[in-house]
Design a protein that fits this description.
Strand order of the largest sheet: 3-2-4-7-1-8-12-11-9-10
Distance between the termini: 23 Å
Helix content: 25-40%
Number of strands: 12
Radius of gyration: 19 Å
């Protein structure tokens, strides 16, 4: 959805972003203890208090936490008294941001707090993610997330779209970019290592780790009061592929392309793209689907290959893109988030700064 040509649509911006230092394990910290410093940081950046926030929305997974309604416990980090207007999505926090954006569009609130978190260290995230699959035909076979990504990578190689050295180059560039990101879990010269599932080596896959992120949205003049250079959301949209993997072309992402089109990404060139591509082969697909040429700086933060906290990595892509706009390092940025196997669900947002 884009606001182009709609005079009565509110301008909404990301005005603050914060994230944890992403680590292989957060030790004995609970989700609340992991979240609280991030929430305090993002509020402090704007000078707001919890009572000043008009709407709060979070993204997380009960499957990952291993207990039902786990997000209600995380609200202790926000502070539920005095009573707050709150919602939750069982998705990456990027989709929580989409819900908050629509809430602000209605005029029911002028500010929103969006946060997400994930602790993958306690169990096998590869097995947990099988619960996303078709429950009748695919999930009973227990194909894990890396095996499915390897099928996608092999399809790309067979189609002549890439090869293993090119995938290794994607990994090397991403980890090199992450050296400038103090929050990254992996950075620098990370070896490709052995095959996890051929043709994917360890370096082609995201690290397993824990992390959290939060952003604050604000509308109109309120955004300008809270941030010297707001990152205005000029368009945002999300689309989904067919659930059945056998009816999809795994070498393409029509849903990402359509989401980008509806968000207005193709109307003018972008200078930065933060892509949620947990596997090197998925960056190849997304670059083509989103029409990103060599002039676009892709994943200057290192992307999901440098840190991939499940349920927060997509929101982090939006936050990283917004932060570059805040700092004046980008004028028009594209942020992408994905969920599900083989780029099944895709969200695209276009962020711009003021001159």
């Amino acid at each position: 959805m884009t606001r182009e040509g709609a005079e009565d649509v509110r301008d909404i911006a990301v005005v603050a972003f914060a994230q944890t230092d992403h680590r292989r394990t957060s030790g004995e910290l609970s989700e609340v203890e992991m979240l609280m410093p991030v929430l305090h940081e993002v509020l402090q950046a704007t000078g707001l208090k919890t009572a000043d926030i008009g709407f709060t929305c979070s993204g997380s997974s009960d499957y990952l936490a291993g207990r039902a309604f786990s997000f209600t416990m995380a609200l202790d980090g926000v502070g539920a008294w005095p009573p707050i207007s709150e919602s939750h999505v069982e998705m990456d926090g990027a989709w929580a941001l989409y819900e908050a954006w629509t809430k602000l569009l209605t005029g029911d609130a002028d500010t929103a707090l969006v946060y997400s978190y994930g602790k993958s260290s306690p169990g096998s995230v590869r097995d947990v993610l099988t619960r996303q699959l078709d429950p009748y035909y695919v999930a009973p076979l227990w194909p894990d997330s890396v095996a499915l990504a390897a099928l996608q990578a092999q399809a790309l190689i067979d189609a002549g779209e890439t090869d293993e050295p090119a995938l290794a180059g994607v990994a090397a560039r991403s980890r090199a970019s992450a050296t400038a990101n103090s929050h990254a879990q992996l950075s620098g010269a990370v070896p490709q290592g052995d095959y996890l599932v051929r043709p994917l080596r360890r370096g082609d896959c995201p690290p397993i780790g824990d992390g959290a992120a939060a952003v604050i949205l604000a509308a109109g003049e309120r955004a300008r009061e809270l941030c010297p250079r707001p990152a205005w959301i000029r368009g945002i949209d999300h689309r989904i592929e067919a659930h059945g993997l056998g009816v999809r072309d795994l070498t393409d992402s029509p849903s990402a392309r359509l989401a980008a089109e509806k968000a207005g990404a193709f109307e003018r060139p972008v200078d930065t793209a933060e892509l949620h591509a947990p596997f090197t082969s998925q960056e190849v697909i997304l670059r083509q689907a989103l029409r990103l040429d060599g002039e676009v700086t892709v994943n200057p933060s290192g992307g999901a290959l440098a840190a991939n906290p499940v349920m927060a990595a997509g929101l982090i892509r939006i936050g990283e893109a917004a932060a570059r706009v805040h700092r004046g390092e980008s004028d028009r940025a594209l942020a992408h988030a994905t969920s599900g196997p083989c780029l099944q669900q895709n969200l695209v947002a276009v962020l711009e700064g003021e001159s």
